[in-house]
């Protein structure tokens, strides 16, 4: 199966997509890993979660002006509906996701 492009991945019809832009060397990114994994479980079937390593996917990071890691973006039908740089408390991420789930 061919790798999907970033544009294809974020156009999940009817389902919001949370993108976690991270880097292996980033401490706060590692702190957010369990939070992001829990969100993926909690919203299974309602939310798609994608992790993008900015060192390996510089084009996607540049396209969306990711200037620091971690940066979280929520896409709906391929459009950015929310973006935040830095670590985000799990309950805050949950509230934001709930606002965008139909």
Automatic annotation (TrEMBL):
Keywords carried by this UniProt record: Disulfide bond, Electron transport, Redox-active center, Transport
Protein name: Thioredoxin
Species for this entry: Pontibacter aquaedesilientis
Gene that this sequence comes from: trxA
UniProt family annotation: Belongs to the thioredoxin family.
UniProt KW Cell cycle keyword: no
Domain Thioredoxin: from-to ranges: 1-102
Classification via InterPro entries: Thioredoxin (IPR005746), Thioredoxin-like_sf (IPR036249), Thioredoxin_CS (IPR017937), Thioredoxin_domain (IPR013766)
